[in-house]
Structures are given as C-alpha cells and as structure tokens.
Amino acid sequence: MRVKICGLKDPAGLEAAARAGADYVGLVFFPPSPRAVTPAEAAALSAALPGGPQRVGLFVDADDALLEAVTGALALDVLQLHGAESPARCAAVRRRFGLPVMKALGIATPADLDALAAYAEAVDLFLLDAKAPPGAPLPGGNAAPFDWTLTAGRRLPRPWLLAGGLTPGNVAQAIAASGAPGVDVSSGVERARGVKDPALIAAFISAARAA
Ligand SMILES: O=C(O)c1ccccc1NCC(=O)[C@H](O)[C@H](O)COP(=O)(O)O
C-alpha cells in the first residue's frame, strides 16, 4: 500500500508524514491554492527532511519555466500533473525533466477510466481523483470523493493512487471498495483548510497500512 500526503507546507506536517512512513509527500506549486509553496520554501522544507518519502511536485498546466524554476530549486522525485495536460504534454515533460510523471485524472464514470489508456505510454502512474465540484476554486484538494466501486476489479494500465475525500475514518473502506494499491489525501488530514494536523496524518497512514 503506497501512501501520499499532499499539500504539505510546514515542517511539522512533513516530519509527521515522514515519521509515520509516508511513501510520497506532495508540494503544491499552484499559487491559487492555500497549500501552495514557492520554490524557495519548498527547497527549505525538503532540505530539513533528509531521506524518507519521495518528493512530489504538484503542478496545474504549468509551463516549462515554472517546472524549471522548481526542479532547479530542489530535487523532486515525481512530477504530478493535475491540470488538463494532454498525453503529448505529459510525455514532453517526462522527457525534458527526466522524472516520473504522475497524471491526475478526474473520475466520475467508467468511461473516465477508459481514458487512461491514452496516457499509458506517457506517464508512470495515475492519481485518480474526483472531478472538481461545480464552482470549486481548485482542480483538486476539494475533499470530494468519487464512487470507489468504479475501479473495483478493473485492470488499469499503470500503478495508481486513489484520491478524493479520503480521511483516517474512511480510508480502509475506500481501499476495500476500490481495490486501490495506494492512496492520497490532503483535506482529510487538515485541521483547517491548508493547515495540516500531524495527528491526523499519523492516523491516516496507520489506517491505510492496516487496511
Ligand atoms: O491540494 C491542492 O491545493 C490542489 C490544488 C490544485 C490542484 C490539485 C490540488 N490537490 C491535489 C491532490 O493531490 C489532493 O491530494 C487530491 O486532490 C485529494 O484531495 P482531498 O480530496 O482534499 O484529499
């Protein structure tokens, strides 16, 4: 079971995630998000966390200039593309930056899962999230779940993480219903929007590992 804690922006949250054994920590490089960090802030956070989880940089339809600024400031392990990036754009980013690409896709129907095939050769893993609710200011991190049974019994073309509305209280049920080999959370481990709670992070990872 792979576990990603997303939207970390303070040392206490990162330390809690690392201590509890998170596989990935997500740093958001999308300025409208309350979870956004600058490249300099991310570099300082990363430097204070030797070893441990893989660093995932989260981008929304970013241009190469932003990707260069961030990858020049700190060593990322994975690029998460959470906008409307096409398969060709994902492949170009992977080639140019030489890093694994995690493509986030919004899921609401079985047809949305069929669309993964077009990305299979262009990305290394998927993050399956709910579609942003109407009027939501962000394309992700909205505490919105999708129907977990949609993925049950489906063979998907790449490893994947389940995301959207997960919490310490529902992650075990979500894993059982979806068959997910990994999970991702942001809102469900926050005490206020954009403010991570170390105890919730530890509880989430523990619940996911026990599932
Ligand atoms: O979290 C954000 O602020 C964010 C902003 C823009 C695009 C994506 C964003 N988050 C993506 C994530 O990876 C979240 O962890 C995922 O959507 C699940 O979020 P939540 O439902 O809040 O657990």
Describe what you observe in this structure.
The protein is an alpha/beta fold. It has a single domain, classed as Alpha-Beta Barrel (TIM Barrel), CATH 3.20.20. It is built from seven helices and ten strands. The mean pLDDT is 97. Helix 1 runs parallel beside helix 7 and helix 2 runs parallel beside helix 3. 31% of the residues lie in helices and 21% in strands. The strands form two sheets. Strands 7-6-5-4-3-2-1-8 form an eight-stranded parallel beta sheet. The radius of gyration is 16 Å and the shape is globular.
SSE inventory with pairings:
Blueprint: E1 2-5, H1 11-19, E2 24-28, H2 39-47, E3 54-59, H3 64-73, E4 78-81, H4 87-97, E5 101-107, H5 110-114, E6 125-130, E7 160-162, H6 171-178, E8 182-185, E9 190-192, E10 195-196, H7 198-210
Parallel strand pairs: 1-2, 1-8, 2-3, 3-4, 4-5, 5-6, 6-7
Antiparallel strand pairs: 9-10
The structure holds ligand LARABZUK.
Domain N-(5'phosphoribosyl) anthranilate isomerase (PRAI): 3-206
GO molecular function, one term: phosphoribosylanthranilate isomerase activity
Catalytic activity: N-(5-phospho-beta-D-ribosyl)anthranilate = 1-(2-carboxyphenylamino)-1-deoxy-D-ribulose 5-phosphate
